[in-house]
């Protein structure tokens, strides 16, 4: 299974869980397909040696949780989003991790740090911090490839014209 296929299946499971918990689809009509999709995801995660953080292989289990502990549609949506977010981030980060190192130590260190943080990020501020790391990686790449003999600047110094 490719990463995009796994991400699509995770999104489908997430959407079904939200739907049944917020007055949408009826469990009896979608549970069999949900269970089949869940098994496919669980098998794929096992193949990738990723622990499965999704505790509900059956929508009736999910019903037991939300009906007892989670009042209201908004909190149910938030619960499901929080349940899926780390796994989706990890799968997305693994797609990026397939890129070989550049050989430039600072660039590679920054990219590794950004990947690790991306796999754990949950809040807007955490994602913004990852964006700053990516910006630093781009600056480091520019510094590595800059050659004053090939890239002339006004006044002869690139750094004084490089304003952030």
Proportion of helical residues: over 70%
- Give the end-to-end Cα distance, rounded to a whole number of Å: 42 Å
Series of H and E elements = HHHHHHH
Total number of β-strand segments? 0
Oligomer: single chain
Q: Helical region count?
A: 7
Beta-strand share of residues: under 5%
Q: Spans with pLDDT under 50 lasting ≥5 residues? A: none
Largest sheet: none
Radius of gyration: 22 Å
Mean pLDDT across every amino acid position: 87
Can you give keywords for this protein?
164 residues; 7 helices; mainly alpha; elongated
Written overview of the protein:
With about 160 residues, this protein is mainly α. About 70% of the residues lie in helices and about 0% in strands. The chain has helices at about 5-20, 25-45, 60-70, 75-95, 105-120, 125-145, 160. Helix 1 runs antiparallel to helix 2 (about 25-45) and helix 5 (about 105-120) runs antiparallel to helix 6 (about 125-145). It starts with a helix and ends with a helix.
Give a summary of the structure in a few sentences:
The chain contains seven helices and no strands. It is mainly alpha-helical.
